[in-house]
Write a structure and sequence with these properties.
alpha+beta, 19 helices
């Protein structure tokens, strides 16, 4: 892969129709368990300052971050959220999430020494989970249990695999805009599952919303949906608005991108009724100001609300990974020479890697590129007026957690890490460094020459798009030592990186020109994770200056809604800033080693397909 050597310096609404809702996997970065985590980056004078507040709801926590007009983090807070897991079913509560947000917002503002009057804009980001509420906004259960609190189907829920297969067999034209097939993690299969399995709930639901859209609705009373959520997870065709693409225009626009034939064909024609009232009558570019801003109910300080001023602008939301993209995509070092490319052309060479419980891979382009097995092209789903390609791995941080926690040496390792006041990842990295020296290996990665991992433990999202794919560990022994756990951890980390290489190569073969990676999320704090990715992909990896880019991306939505910036891209250029740059190894032995392991990585899936076929034949 060719690597670019020089660095470049380098949201309108769609109106209401008249008739008419991460925690990244970073549990191993903390040596103590607490219910409320708070950090303060800087203290600043409160005199006449304007700050912007970003809220991010991940898989395990709700977080809030306060940023100044230079994109500096003033303070952040995290509050845990409840999750129910039962086989393929994973559920949450919108009521619990809002209480956690309220606690996090108040704590972040207090820690940053910011008053409610100083917050000039607010933005929300969240996982692409599905929320069900009735006409009063009360929760409607989506659970076999009947528990009305459990009104959210979490993004990683795989109950709707069979529904996704049936939908994909229809070969609707909308599927070409999501890599040729819907994932069971998207909303149409989940909606169909509820209709078929929970008819009473289906009849009670008045609004089906992506979680981040529900958060904005809960804050403003405006149920306008985001182009990010609807296009990426609901099959909405955002490019239907290409003739209304002036981001500075604040006019409302009717949601004209729904394909009614698709919903009818898959058995969800009732969602077309009332101008798509249950799934979205109007949509907006991310960052567009919603309604009259924060309602007095959502603003009040008591009863678990936000403690902010009513009326502050609230920007149309983003999915959490996409907020990470907005928070880092312009975080590149300034170049000594002027870039030959335009700002937008320079953006198109960068892939954002948002590394948390799962990993999302996002790259924009000026023209639409149809890439089998990779979601998109999505128009204006992240950067307004640009096409987005979105790859992903369904379990990365979650997989590393699983591999560590299910090893017999894990409890002792965790105790050692706690006694040394370091994370489990840090201790494992130290064990690997010592093992490399003891065995006189030429480089650390070579420790896994006999261990190979296919990381598809939760299916393959991209580029194979096979939800039935399974994980493979090749090279196990009877060794149960901490050293062996460290080797399995390293092999898993490498397997995740080979998956990203597969996605990058696949995208470039289909017309993208990715030569730089920008990484954020919990796993981006693990230096070994990032270095292995750089070595395996062959690209430099840039880390952002700020430690919470997803929160920054959400705060940018508030800044754009407050008209501090004329466009989302202008806000990104003003508030993004680069940090450390990690370059791939120059040792040709490292490249040769990873090339060989990558071939094995690719062969593991091919062998799995062969085994699947053999067993299917045996059972017919």
């Amino acid at each position: 892969m060719s690597v670019k050597k020089n660095w470049s310096d380098s949201t309108p609404l769609l109106p209401q129709h008249q008739s008419q809702p991460r925690s990244p996997s970073n549990s191993y970065f903390s040596y103590s368990s607490i219910s409320l985590e708070m950090t303060s980056a800087i203290s600043a004078s409160a005199t006449d300052r304007s700050v912007f507040l970003g809220v991010d709801v991940g898989t395990g926590s709700a977080r809030a971050g306060v940023f100044d007009e230079n994109g500096k983090l003033l303070g952040s807070s995290s509050s845990p959220i409840q999750i129910w897991k039962d086989g393929d079913c994973v559920e949450q509560s919108s009521t619990d999430i809002w209480h956690a947000i309220s606690a996090a917002v108040k704590a972040a503002c207090s820690l940053a020494e910011v008053s409610g009057e100083e917050v000039k804009g607010l933005g929300f980001a969240a996982t692409c989970s599905l929320v069900a509420v009735d006409s009063d906004g009360s929760p409607v259960t989506v659970s076999w249990s009947g528990d009305s609190r459990r009104n959210i189907i979490v993004w990683m829920d795989h109950r709707a695999v069979e529904q996704a297969e049936r939908i994909n067999s229809c070969n609707s034209p909308v599927l070409q805009y999501c890599g040729g097939a819907l994932s069971p993690e998207m909303q149409p299969p989940k909606l169909l599952w509820v209709k078929e399995n929970l008819p009473e709930s289906w009849s009670m639901v008045f609004r089906w919303m992506d979680l981040s859209d529900w958060l904005s609705y809960r804050a403003t009373g405006d149920d306008t949906r985001s182009l990010c959520t609807t296009v990426c997870k609901w099959t909405y065709l955002g490019h239907a608005h290409m003739q209304q693409n002036n981001e500075k225009d604040s006019r409302d626009m009717e949601a004209c991108g729904w394909d009614d034939d698709f919903w009818e064909e898959i058995g969800l024609g009732d969602l077309v009724e009332g101008h798509h009232a249950k799934i979205g009558r109007s949509v907006a570019f991310p960052g567009h100001p919603l309604g009259s801003g924060l309602t007095s109910t959502a603003a009040k300080a008591r009863y678990s609300e936000l403690g902010l001023l009513a009326g502050i602008p609230v920007g149309t939301s983003l999915i959490d990974a996409h907020a990470g993209g907005v928070g880092v995509l312009e975080s590149v070092p300034s170049s000594d020479s002027q870039p030959k490319e335009s700002d937008i052309e320079a953006l198109c060479h960068r892939m954002v890697l948002v590394c948390g419980t799962s990993t999302c891979h996002m790259v924009v382009s000026q023209k639409k590129l149809f890439i089998p097995g990779v979601w998109g092209p999505y128009w204006s789903a992240m950067v307004p007026e640009q096409w987005l390609t979105e790859g992903g791995q369904s379990a990365t941080g979650a997989l590393l957690d699983y591999m560590i926690e299910n090893h017999v040496a894990s409890p002792h390792l965790a105790n050692r890490a706690a006694s040394q006041r370091m994370s489990v990842f840090e201790l494992l990295n130290k064990i690997l460094e010592k093992t490399m020296l003891d065995l006189k290996r030429p480089f650390l990665a070579s420790l896994t020459e006999d261990i190979h991992v296919l990381p598809d433990f939760h299916g393959n999202r991209s580029p194979i798009a096979d939800p039935k794919a399974k994980g493979i560990i090749c090279g196990l022994t009877l060794d149960t030592s901490e050293k062996q756990l460290a080797l399995q951890y390293l092999a898993t980390l490498q397997g995740i990186a080979y998956g990203t290489r597969h996605i990058v190569e696949h995208c470039n073969a289909q017309g993208h020109k990715i030569d730089t990676i920008l990484a954020c999320g919990g796993l981006a704090k693990n230096h070994l994770f990032i270095q292995e990715h750089a070595d395996i992909i062959g690209c430099p990896i840039i880390l952002p200056r700020e430690s919470e880019p997803v929160l920054l991306g959400a705060a940018i939505l508030g800044a754009v809604a407050a008209r501090k910036y004329s466009s989302m891209h202008d806000a990104m250029k003003a508030l993004n800033a680069s940090g450390q740059v990690i370059h791939p190894s120059k040792d040709p032995k490292v490249k040769n080693y990873h090339d060989a392991k990558y071939r094995i990585f690719r062969e593991l899936y091919e062998k799995q397909l062969s085994h699947r076929s053999l067993m299917a034949q045996a059972l017919t």
